[in-house]
Amino acid sequence: MAQITLIEAVTQALAYEMRNDDSVVVLGEDVGVNGGVFRATQGLQEQFGEMRVIDTPLDEGTIAGLTVGLAAQGMKPVAEAQFEGFIYPMMEHIACHAARMRNRTRGRITVPAVWRAPWGGGIRAPEHHSEANEHLFTNIPGLRVVMPSSPARAYGLLLAAIRDPDPVIFFEPKRIYRQYKEEVPDDGEALPLDVCFVLRDGTDVTLVTWGAQVKECLEAADELAEKGISAEVIDVATLTPLDFDTIAESVTKTGRCVIVHEAPKTAGFGAEIAARLSEECLYSLLAPVERVTGFDTHIPLFRLEMKYLPSVERIVEAAERTLAAS
Amino acid sequence: MSIAAKFEIEYLQYLDQDGKETGKELPEFAKDLDHMVELYKLMVSTRVFDAKSIALQRTGKLGTYASCLGHEAAHVGIGSAMRREDSLAVSYREYGAQLYRGVKPREVYTYWGGDERGNDFADAPAHDFAWCVPIGTQCLHAAGSALAFKIRNEPRVAVCTIGDGGSSKGDFYGAINVAGAQQLPLVAVIVNNQWAISVPRRIQSGSGTLAQKGIAAGLYCIQVDGNDIIAVRKAMEDALERARSGNGGSVIEAVTYRLGDHTTADDARRYRGEQEVKDAWERDPVPRLRKWLEAKGKWDDAKEEAWKAECDDWMDNEVNAYLETKNQPATAMFDYLYAELPADLEKQRELVASLDRK
């Protein structure tokens, strides 16, 4: 079995589901001959033709609106936003139509579409190519916001997203697109949506994160272990609808929680998790909930971007503060 | 001097404002006078429906409502040219087209009366879009529909309607642009009623006609007298046929006039003069077709009176059905959000259910 990267797992999932379901089409800028700027759609047009792997005009609004129309007429479109920083012109169709169509029509018209977007910082890219903006989507009702953190989860969650009868925003952490390889069988097995994954068991503190930051959290857990601190690591994976039960169960056990994300702190999705912990788990908490996040600034251009992104060091320090508090 | 591009826009009109033929040979459908009577009757019933809607709003029985007064020829012309399997993406006042396709007045009342169930059409094609409030966005939904039809090799056409104001939106340009690039079976109809709430046509665009916006996209373009149903219907039939046979999309500009306010929340006297509106009434599409049918011996005062009475009964029946509709349970706000209610929303739904029981 071949070892593949996260980006290759995306391609593998797209190809599998296009073979499996004729109604699946891929559309976006440069997704055809070029195979996408990150090569997520590499080889798909050769395999499935120009009518199913569609290079669109260079207009994100057009891509998003076409996607709604395709889905409303029984197709399963997978649209690519070339970077998360270019998704803003798509938001009207996502928020005003994709997310609302089922509700607006009492189920007569649905939008089973996926919007894929490379997401997050850390690849020394120009401005607008490094955003973490998942929180702008997590309070839009009717959407799913999903973010994989490994090749296997990229494959399984993307299959699930395409098969889901409702619209899904699928953010792909581009910093770990090619970070490592793992075996991902091309067996068409989807992973469950609306479920958090516990990646490492621990007893002293819970690290809650998603996307590329999973890597830093696992490394922080290793460092903490060397210091005799046992950290549990949760990959949220589907931000909304949230599987809060898994987080609550873990924090009830450990009594401590550090939430880690790249997006700005204020009103980032970590704020929602912290609020839910205070509502539902306050009496199990042994220390204040910590957040290690991007700052309430724009992510700097690349000479400074690693100063902005949460580091292993900041995560370890936050975890130690929770231990020191009790 | 060498010329890189040249274009012209045809203007189509069969009936002048007095209902007299302009001399152009009538298209086939217009020679079927019984059919023309049916179209006329729907224009009248649309007008009766519209007046009833406004009366409902004025008496507190309907929310904000966008009147279609003056657009009857354009809307019925669009709807009557389409096949059932074609898809229609409207904005929010194209009732003549929708009634023709089977939308019930009670469904219109239900939606504008604050209940989503009005969008769950019982008889109209299930693939027709719901009312679309964000201006222009429906054009791209139609383009996406047209792309779906093309991918599946189905002989179907996606039609969208948009106003003169809406034709300023990026989504309109995006839709016609991709339709041209991909040879999509899209017919975009600009129902130019001269006013986008308070902003007149001249402020929307420096384009000589709105139809010619489609030239740059590589579409077939035509401007028609939007108060002449024969012209609208003919342009639609040609455009639909062209699209259905794989020969590309069209932009049709139907020039009409918004005789009423933008919506019941608007007062058009604030921004436009009486004389302009008075002049526009001279071009009213309904009496124009009536005069033509009367001259052909197909219509008269007695028929008019009898049909209006029938429309009144129809609308009363629809209004009663609407007014008798009980509210949805409050939990309905959760029940169509996703195919299945996510576990994380169950508590919120229970809270709403308990409040609803109080």
From TrEMBL, chain A:
Keywords: Oxidoreductase, Thiamine pyrophosphate. Residues 4-179 form the Transketolase-like pyrimidine-binding domain. Pfam families: Transket_pyr, Transketolase_C. Transmembrane segments: none annotated. Gene3D superfamilies: 3.40.50.920, 3.40.50.970. Its cofactor is thiamine diphosphate. The keyword Oxidoreductase applies. It comes from the Bacteria. InterPro entries: THDP-binding, Transketo_C/PFOR_II, Transketolase-like_Pyr-bd, Transketolase_C. This is Alpha-ketoacid dehydrogenase subunit beta. It comes from Luteibacter jiangsuensis.
Automatic annotation (TrEMBL), chain B:
The keyword Magnesium does not apply. Its EC number is 1.2.4.1. Its cofactor is thiamine diphosphate. Keywords: Oxidoreductase, Pyruvate, Thiamine pyrophosphate. It holds the Pfam family E1_dh. Residues 40-321 form the Dehydrogenase E1 component domain. CDD domains: TPP_E1_PDC_ADC_BCADC. It catalyses: N(6)-[(R)-lipoyl]-L-lysyl-[protein] + pyruvate + H(+) = N(6)-[(R)-S(8)-acetyldihydrolipoyl]-L-lysyl-[protein] + CO2. Heterodimer of an alpha and a beta chain. The pyruvate dehydrogenase complex catalyzes the overall conversion of pyruvate to acetyl-CoA and CO(2). It contains multiple copies of three enzymatic components: pyruvate dehydrogenase (E1), dihydrolipoamide acetyltransferase (E2) and lipoamide dehydrogenase (E3). PANTHER family: 2-OXOISOVALERATE DEHYDROGENASE SUBUNIT ALPHA, MITOCHONDRIAL. This is Pyruvate dehydrogenase E1 component subunit alpha. It comes from Luteibacter jiangsuensis.
